[in-house]
Amino acid sequence: MKKIGMVVAMQSEVKSFLEGKNLPVEMQKRGGFDVMKFHLGDNPVICVKSGVGEILASSATQMLISEFGVDLIINFGVCGSLVDGVKVGDVAVVNGVVHYDFDTSAFDGCEVGRYLQYPDVIIRPDGELIEKVKQIYPEINQVVCASADKFVADEKIKQNLAKTFGASVCEMESAGVLLTSLNAGVPCLIIKAVSDGKGGAEEFKQMVDYSSRRYVELIYKLSESLR
Question: What is the CA radius of gyration of the chain?
């Protein structure tokens, strides 16, 4: 049995997950966060709707670790595509995150996006959890995610993120979740479903609910493999 902590940014992202199996849920309020408690099989789950952005996502992650003592963190939600090979509706497991607007280069010469305590700009989630996902869905997309506190709709910015960092998707929470988990020594997994590509913000509004439903079955099956 594992106590699973989940971080999700928006109600639309968690709604599809909870409705997928009609789970009985205990609702709580912790400060500004909505907290949902339920079970996936034998595993107790504490899911926090953090709100959008790195700071809120990091705060929610730390609360799950400090107050609830979770054994692992799963961040799931929607993302934007940066490349033609990753399409709206695709589900991806994130095998690397770059916090692309983190920049200390002016005083230490470090590459844009790199924290000095890590050897590369790409920060890696837990490899064992990624392997479990690949065993469930061998054909799943594995992607590098560019993460920062901005919704990216400009096609030139998307192309630059893909070229500079080798990223295939972008969003606004995973760097905060991953860095907080790593600093606390808690395994972290990030699952994303693509809600928008060249259509930008308008496409996101139309597709967010559909895309959110795409990762539901994967997370249910993953929970069955956690012991």
Answer: 16
Q: pTM surpassing 0.85?
A: yes
Q: Over the stretch 48-71, which tens digit does the pLDDT of each residue have?
A: 999 999 999 999 999 999 999 999
Cβ-Cβ contacts under 8 Å for 82 (sequence gap 6 or more): 146, 158, 159, 161, 162, 167, 168, 169, 170
Largest CA distance in the chain: 52
| Cα angle, residue 67 at apex, residues 62 and 69 outer, rounded to 5° | 85
Average pLDDT, integer, range 74-95:
88
User: Which 3 state secondary structure label does DSSP give 100?
Assistant: coil
SS3 171: strand
Listed by start position, the domains of the chain span 4-224
Q: How do residues 193-212 score in pLDDT, each as one tens digit?
A: 887 555 545 544 455 555 45
Nearest CA to 49 among 63, 64, 60?
Answer: 60
The CATH code of the domain at 4-224 is 3.40.50.1580
Query: With left for phi above 0 and alpha for psi between -120 and 50, is residue 143 left, alpha or beta?
Result: beta
